[in-house]
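Running this now, will post back.
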Amino acid sequence: MKRTSIPGLGIIVLFALVFHPGLVLSASPPPPQNGDVFPAIILTIPEDPAHKVYLGLAGEGQFKIPQIKAEAVIIEVYSMYCPHCQREASRVNQLYETIEQSPKYKGRLKVIGIGVGNSSFEVGVFAKKYKVPFPLFPDADFSIHQRLGEVRTPYFIGVRIKKDGTNEVFYSKLGGFRTAHEFLQSMVELSGLK
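Update: finished.
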C-alpha cells in the first residue's frame, strides 16, 4: 500500500502550536514570578538540630516556607546530578557564610536547597560531598518541582516573608551568580531588606 502525505502538514501543526499555545495543555504552572505568592509546598522539618535552629522550627512534622523564622528566604532548586549545580555549590556555600557573618542580615535572610528528583540519600550525598552548611530537602517524586514550573537547575527563588504571615516572590531566575557578595547585595535590594 502506497503511503501518501500532505505536503507541509507538519509545518502547519508546528505553526499552530507555536502561535496558538492554548492548544497545548501544560501539566505544570509557570515558574513563580516576581510579585506572586510562593506555592504552598510542604517540606519535612529537618532532623539535624542545627538546621532546626537555623530555620527557627521545632519538633517534628512538616512546614511551609512562610513558617521559616526569617524576613526573606533564598531557595536554590538544584539536582545532585546537575553539573552546573555542582560547580555552583561553593558559591552558594559562600553566600550562606556571607549572610551568617553579617550582623545586619544574619537571622533575617536564610538559604535552603530543594533537590529535584533527589532522594533523602542523594541529598545527603550532595551535602557531604560539597560541604553544604544549610538545609537541603529532597523532592524525589518531582512533586515540588512540578509546583515550581519544572524549572531547570540551578534555579534561584527569593521569597519575602511578611509580618502578617503572607509572602511574596521577589526573585525567580535560572542560573548561578558571579560572587556571593554581589548576589547578596542584589537579594537585599530586591527583597527590600534594610
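Residues 83-100 form the longest helix (18 residues). More later if anyone needs it.
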